[in-house]
Amino acid sequence: MTQSPVRYDRQGAVGIVTVDSPPVNALSQAVRQGLWDRVTEGFNDPAVTALVIVGAGRTFIAGADIAEFIKGGMGEPDLNEVNALIESGAKPVIAALHGTALGGGLEVALSCHYRVAVPKALVGLPEVKLGILPGGGGTQRLSRLVGAKTAIEMITSGAFLPAAKAHSLGIVDYVGEGTDPLAVALSFAASLQAGPHKRTRDREDGLAADRGSSVFDEARASLAKSARNQFAPQRCVDAVEAAFTLPFDEGLTRERDLFMQCMAHDQAKALIHVFFAERAVTKIPDVLPSVPARKIAQVAVLGSGTMGGGIAMNFVNAGIPVRLLDLDQVALDRGMGVIAKNYAGTVAKGKLAQTEMDKRLSLIQPTTDYADLADADLIVEAVFEDADVKAKVFRRLDEVAKKGAILASNTSTLDLDAIAAHTKRPADVIGMHFFSPANVMKLLEVVRGRHTAPDVIATAMAVGKQIGKVSVLVGNCDGFVGNRMVQYYATEAQRLVIEGASIEQVDQAALEFGLAMGPFAMGDLAGLDVMGFIRARRVAAGLIYGTPLSDRIDPARKGQKNGRGWYRYEPGNRTPLPDPEVTAVIDAYRAERGITPRNFSSEEIAKRLIYSLVNEGAKILEEGMALRAGDIDIVYIYGYGFPAWRGGPMKFAELSGLDKVLADITRYHADAVAAGDADGAYWEPAPLLTRLVAEGKKGFG
Ligand code: 3HC
Ligand code: NAI
Q1: Is 122 in the pocket of ligand 1 (CB under 6 A)?
Q2: Which distant-in-sequence residues (6+ apart) come within 8 Å of 85 by Cβ?
Q3: Which numbered ligand comes closest to the C-alpha of 409?
């Protein structure tokens, strides 16, 4: 018989139920059964007058076992049964919180008669981030303690609250000192008066004031904007409202019904996929956790421009000193000025103390002298995107960098192996591809060259985590993962316009799909001059990027940077405005090609945009340039504003049905061929997609 992950023992007159199920004591079936058995044992133990539930290891219970949601069929006992048992006892039960008491974990605690915590404990109901809502009575019990407004805020945001805040709200009864939750609980138990000990279900503290309140409608209206198109947040409000309109048991039934509705929704499948995908990106089959990362105590960044400045900020924000090198003092002064201005903006918003800004700036040492890079453990190059300039820089770095230093390039389009070949240490060369603005965007593509050493990869991944990035390992191909896919997406946006959609309609369809920004607005942000440069290079190499339409746009139109791109912009305003000059270019181009514009629905536009990503993503996957389909999804969610609740492009394809997606892609390809449109050649279905569908597979695996 396997050992239960929950044990029972005794200290004096207190029975202690310890959940010991690493890593986070999630409420698997075995944990629920163990809680049931051990709590029953405690209630029946004549030697004890109170029980404590505590977590072993680093945390209290961090929630339901999310892996069980995917497997389906969660098994008896149900969490609500366990909670009802805890609440029903004649002896008081105290939850002793440390680490994170989240989701079902907090729901267990809310079913206890008392909750005590160590100061560093965090509590929260983050189910909404998984596309679901608290399904173990959390919406009903929390509302009884804190009222509607706070319950809605906590449950629809999924925020984690520190113990002190939870105490002030009445969620936690007592915050003790130190780090040992059991010690806190035992001293609290010693101070307990004789009963009766009120059950949370009988508490009225939070209910009275909010019965019939307008807070529910206000929350719905606000979420309709802030969580547009999302299913779970509105259901969370419905569930909280039930606490105010229904008796407790009926409220629980309503909560369960809403929970099941969320669980059955594609958005929950998407968000649960994202939860695991985000954690899977750290796992690299041939770079095991046992591979030691190199020590990074001093960093150097080359180039203090748009990217170099933001990259330097990332490191000093994490307390790692940076030497920032540029060609001359003028460039350095400009770069340092931008960094200082960025920090000053954060200080002005009250999000950073002036002393902290000063400390961070003092960690950046500007220099024009390569000799100053000699002690750097990691050097990140972010100079001009020019193969000759990079060659010169890497040859020089090879001369000055110490043995064992990692030489990273932030190149977005150049061949990393060619860059590495300019050094005598290609094993130490890696790509660290940040996204603009580099101090804000969470994504870091870590690019593996042909010769990159495993410990260099391990170090880049670890450093990425240290500076707060989500790092995804990608292969060395044109555009790596994100930009390689986005080329076809941007091209497809132009093809849609050529065929009859308007620029605004295409962007609007992308927004309605849930993307943070439409493809044309994105082009204007990235800079049409930069796009033009990439297009010229790709066209010269016989590759597709953009359409001849983009060549017709006046090269002086650079996008947001000069107020004229696909759109026009008023000075100091980023709102894209339609520009008749661009419309005229589009009309002329259609006339020249004899194209009669046709109407598009938003759905058709969104499908063509997203499937262009999916088809290229499948090619990337088959070539091994991404390790998993989920890695591609994470790239898109953290680098390109793809809505997490859609799961990323690859998961979206799975949820849409790979066979249906392939049928559409096949049709788009046939249409492009029939129209003699070489710009649409990328619609040739990815062999992997064709194979998976032929084999009846539902996912990328
Ligand atoms: N279920 C299953 N596995 C979980 C889990 C959970 N609730 N929470 C974490 N894990 C796993 C992770 O997948 C990871 O596994 P891996 O090592 O194999 O990759 C491991 O635990 C460690 O997780 P992290 O890498 O995320 O560790 P951190 O220390 O960075 O973070 C955490 C810990 C804050 C607990 C974070 O993992 C987290 O936020 N977990 C999810 C919490 C959550 O959403 N709880 C609600 C669940 S839904 C629910 O309770 C429904 C109920 O109302 C019925
Ligand atoms: P930028 O033009 O803003 O900055 C480049 C900086 O490098 C300038 O300050 C310049 O003086 C300096 N520089 C040029 N040659 C140098 C040399 N030999 N030694 C030292 N410094 C030198 O360019 P940006 O946009 O910051 O791009 C830098 C790199 O980052 C490029 O490889 C680019 O492809 C990549 N990148 C750019 C992104 C973007 O959105 N701008 C996104 C991701 C990567």
Answers
A1: no
A2: 36, 39, 40
A3: 2
| Ligand 1: centre distance to CA 8 (Å) | 24
Contacting residues for 205 by C-beta, under 8 A, at least 6 apart: 144, 145, 147, 170
Beta carbons within 8 Å of 433's beta carbon, 6+ residues apart: 410, 411, 412, 444, 445, 446, 447, 474, 480
Distance of CA 326 to the CA centre of its chain: 33
**Which residue from 290, 246, 252 is spatially nearest to 80, judged by alpha carbons?**
252
**Ligand 2: which residue has its CA nearest to atom 13?**
383
Give the containing element (helix H, strand E) for 525: helix 519-526
Token readout for 100 is 């994170």
Q: What is the pLDDT of residue 537?
A: 87
From the CA of 78, the nearest ligand is 1
Query: Is residue 378 a contact partner of residue 463, using CB atoms and an 8 Å limit?
Result: yes
Give residue 187 CA to ligand 1 midpoint distance, Å.
Answer: 30
Closest residue to atom 22 of ligand 1, CA basis: 23
Q: How far is CA 587 from CA 186, 496, 508, 521, in A?
A: 78, 13, 20, 20
3-state secondary structure of 179: coil
Dmax (CA) of the chain: 92
Query: How do residues 197-219 score in pLDDT, each as one tens digit?
Result: 999 999 988 888 888 789 999 99
Q: Is this model's pTM higher than 0.90 or not? A: yes
In angstroms, what is the span from residue 643 Cα to ligand 1's centroid? 21
pLDDT at 73: 65
Radius of gyration in angstroms for the set of CA atoms belonging to the chain, rounded to a whole number: 28
Ligand 1, atom 25, lies closest to the CA of 279
Q: Which atom of ligand 1 is nearest to the CA of 134?
A: 53
Q: What is the mean pLDDT of residues 83-112?
A: 97
Could you list the beta-strand ranges (E) of 27-84: 50-55
pLDDT of residue 1: 59
Ligand 1 lined by 103 (C-beta under 6 Å): yes
Ligand 1 proximity of 102 Cβ (cutoff 6 Å):
yes
Could you give the CA distance from residue 279 to residue 631 in angstroms, rounded to a whole number? Answer: 10
CA distance 578 to 595: 22
Question: Residues near 46 by Cβ (< 8 Å), separated by ≥ 6?
Answer: none
pLDDT average, residue stretch 128-142: 98
Where would I find the beta strands (DSSP E) of 564-604? Answer: none
**Residue whose CA is closest, atom 45 of ligand 1?**
63
Q: Which two tokens stand for residue 26?
A: 């999630």
> Is the separation of the CB atoms in 36 and 89 below 8 Å?
no
Q: Which atom of ligand 2 is nearest to the CA of 413?
A: 34
Amino acid at the residue 307 = M
Q: Which atom of ligand 1 approaches the CA of 59 most closely?
A: 35
Residue type present at position 456: V
**Ligand 1 in reach of 64 Cβ (< 6 A):** yes
Rounded-to-10 torsion of CA 645, 650, 653, 655: -50
Rounded distance, CA 147 to CA 145, Å? 6
- Ligand 2, residue 307: give the atom nearest the CA: 26
Query: Which residue owns the Cα nearest ligand 2 atom 9?
Result: 305
Place of tokens 């100091």: 572
Here the tokens at position 676 are 């003699």
Q: Which residues are catalytic?
A: 107, 127
